[in-house]
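Researcher: Next entry in the queue.
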Amino acid sequence: MRKLMEKHEKFKDDEGLWSLAMSRQMAEWREKNNLLDSYDEGKQKGLELGTLNLLAMQIKQKFAIDAKEWLSTLSLSQLYELSNQLLTCDTWEELQQHMH
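Model: Structure for this entry, 100 residues:
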């Protein structure tokens, strides 16, 4: 254990080597955080796309209308609201009126 501590101290005393090691460690942390951010963004996009596709399919089944383009103009909160309105509206026009 003592030799390990001595080597660590010697390593820390070499400023160039220490700085290089710390820079590398920081770069690894940044890369890891970027990957996590990208994963979270991708997961959110996937949820939004899945919600949009499900609602498009339900609208097509209920009203025989391809509404994918219209749905893509709505926010995620509007899509959630639309999923509730879809249960109570009897016509396509009524559904659209509730969303404006």
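Model: The two ends are 71 Å apart (CA to CA).
Researcher: Noted, moving on.
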